[in-house]
Amino acid sequence: MVKIEPFEVEQWFDRLENTPGVLNVAETCAASVSYDDLVHLCEDKTLPDPLRRSQKLTYGAIRGSEQLRQRVASLFGRASEAEPLPAGNVIITQGAIGANFLLFYTLIGPGDHVICVYPTYQQLYSVPESLGAEVSLWRLKEENGYVPVVEELEGLVRSNTKMIVINNPNNPTGSTMPKRVLEGIVAFAKQRGIIILSDEVYSPLYHSLPDGQDAPPSVLALGYEKTVATGSMSKAFSLAGIRLGWIASRDRSIIEAVAVARDYTTISVSQLDDQVASYALSQPVMRPLLSRNMALAKTNLALLSAFIERHATVCSWVKPTAGTTALVQFKKKGVPVDDPKFVLDLLKTTNVLVMPANPCFGLGQDFKGFIRFGYVCETEVLIAGLEKLEQYVKEHLM
Ligand SMILES: Cc1ncc(COP(=O)(O)O)c(C=O)c1O
């Protein structure tokens, strides 16, 4: 039987997110849209909406429709002069969670060593560990703005290091790995033939970069063959309900190896999901959808930022530059709060849901007192949630 750690953040969500009347300020998707919203957003009214024409629901194309894989491949051309990615180098999965799992399942086993940034989505280190690999965590530090220090790889690498796992933008900190850092990681990995997996599920939501800093390219755009990117429709594209993600690699042999393993778990994804995703990634729909989400992220981050400034005696953070999440530390009289207790009591007394860093992102007591916000929800939800949080903080922490 497989030995795997419980997936803490998913279990906390499962237990708490359907609390009646919940004000969910923990959700990591940019506020979800309906199918009708997508059709409404479309800038080209001559574009047929995909579900209008009834089709027989066969398995369809096994690796994902050609059109969808082409549209996913074209995402990797953005912000780079790299060679276009062929559609054949993309394979469709059930969400980014399916993509990450399948990739580890295909490539990682006993005897392998994996380096993974931390904190991040627990799947990225717990799954390789469950497959028998040894995992070293590459700690992102507050004093570096949660951006990894490339030189530290020297101290982590081993002769059997097979993969370096990064997450850009990062969940939970909302930090961005700039291009120069990505280039450093690529140079390090290339010298040693190490595969890089970049979970880019929050890309391209680089909404609040400092002036003069460009959005980084995908890891696939940096001229190294052994690079893999995973992503999905859930976060930046607001369509978690279609459960559609992808694995893309510059190395076709990685995609072929994944396809062999995938036959045992997937056959193909839902044809309805494939068609809706393809429609959402067409230019007339994707453009307004992404500008809605960039604007929503900026508006909401300003609200959260004002809250942090107003309560600077009890909370602090590294302000996020991208993605949908922020990691905020709460203290009472200078002492970090007991974050899981804080979250449960806040929910019980105010119906506001946020996520505790422990156990969701911290091993042991790392990140004591830290709370993860998912702030790119509907703005009204954030405003109502912050109002209630403000009362709670005044009563309990000040
Ligand atoms: C970094 C990261 N990767 C993958 C996933 C899974 O996303 P999906 O809904 O596409 O399966 C999440 C969800 O929170 C995530 O934060």
Automatic annotation (TrEMBL):
Recite the UniProt keywords alphabetically: Pyridoxal phosphate, Transferase
Q: Which SUPFAM superfamilies match?
A: PLP-dependent transferases
From which source organism is this entry?
Canariomyces notabilis
Q: Where is the Aminotransferase class I/classII large domain?
A: 55-380
Q: What is the lineage of its organism?
A: Eukaryota, Fungi, Dikarya, Ascomycota, Pezizomycotina
Keyword Transferase listed: yes
Q: Can you say what this protein is called?
A: PLP-dependent transferase
The UniProt record lists the keyword Transferase: yes
| Family as reported in the entry's similarity comment | Belongs to the class-I pyridoxal-phosphate-dependent aminotransferase family.
Pfam families linked to this entry = Aminotran_1_2
A molecular function annotated in GO for this UniProt entry is: pyridoxal phosphate binding
Organism domain of life:
Eukaryota
UniProt cross-references to PROSITE patterns, sorted A to Z: AA_TRANSFER_CLASS_1 (PS00105)
